Amino acid sequence: MSGLPSNFPTGIAYSGMNIMLLWCSASEQGFGDSRWMTYKQAQAVGGQVRKGEHGTTAIFYTTLEKESEDGEIDQIPMLKTFTVFNVQHIDGLPLATETISPEATFDPLPEAEKLFRKSGANIIEKGQNAFFQPSTDEVRLPERHLFSDAANFYSTGLHEMVHWSGAKNRLNREMKGEFGSEDYAFEELIAEVGSAFLMADLGIVGEVQHQSYIASWPKALKNDKRYIFKAASAASKAHRYLLDKA
């Protein structure tokens, strides 16, 4: 089962930092299913979390309204947590399984091609390097036949498309800093998380390993959790911006 982590009863995909939290948990525990639910949700649909299983903490933002001394209502942001269980930890659920075998050779993927085409980005397949060039507003990619398979080509392209989305006339992210700087590492983390979100949503599977690459950037940011939360938020905005274009 591929794709973004989703809630089993509602079918709604999780977003932001929850995607990373659930992906990491699934990887650590060897889950092959991307569907999750709370203990109460499991009971409501006739399921039962197996004894001894440990859930995964997810988060959501809410606001607390508080009246100030001058009578105005202040909105105070609050972060709350809840626990979800993978469906593989729950008995009694009517589960449908799906097996996806990635193609060994390059095979154009219509949904990814549609996103590239409808984004309006000037994508040029030429040379040996992949990068977004702000001065000309171009996304440069090596020719697709140079990649080992389609998944690697689209992964690389989506990474650069997330960079492209951050331009001043689009999402207006602060993309600055030289290679090796914290600013550079932060933007790279956004681009890689965003491309991982897009690949999951577009159903692109293969030998691409996002997890180890993503893990390298928090180290460059001194494992400051604030950066990780901010990067996940920015990546979600880029993910939604690019999907809306398509």
How is this fold's topology laid out?
Blueprint: E1 6-7, H1 17-29, E2 35-37, H2 39-44, E3 48-49, E4 56-67, E5 73-86, E6 90-91, H3 110-118, E7 122-125, E8 131-133, E9 138-141, H4 150-165, H5 182-202, H6 210-220, H7 225-245
Parallel strand pairs: 1-2, 7-9
Antiparallel strand pairs: 2-5, 3-6, 4-5, 8-9
Compact summary:
The chain is 39% helix and 19% strand. It is built from seven helices and nine strands.
Describe this structure in words.
The chain is α/β, with parallel strands linked by helices and 246 residues long. The chain folds into two domains: 6-91, no CATH class; 110-245, no CATH class. Helix content is 39%, strand content 19%. It has helices at residues 17-29, 39-44, 110-118, 150-165, 182-202, 210-220, 225-245; strands spanning 6-7, 35-37, 48-49, 56-67, 73-86, 90-91, 122-125, 131-133, 138-141. A four-stranded mixed β-sheet has the order 1-2-5-4. Strand 1, helix 1 (17-29) and strand 2 (35-37) form a beta-alpha-beta unit. The protein is globular, with a radius of gyration of 20 Å. The chain starts with 5 loop residues before the first strand and ends with a helix. The relative contact order is 0.13. Residues 98-104 have low confidence and may be disordered.
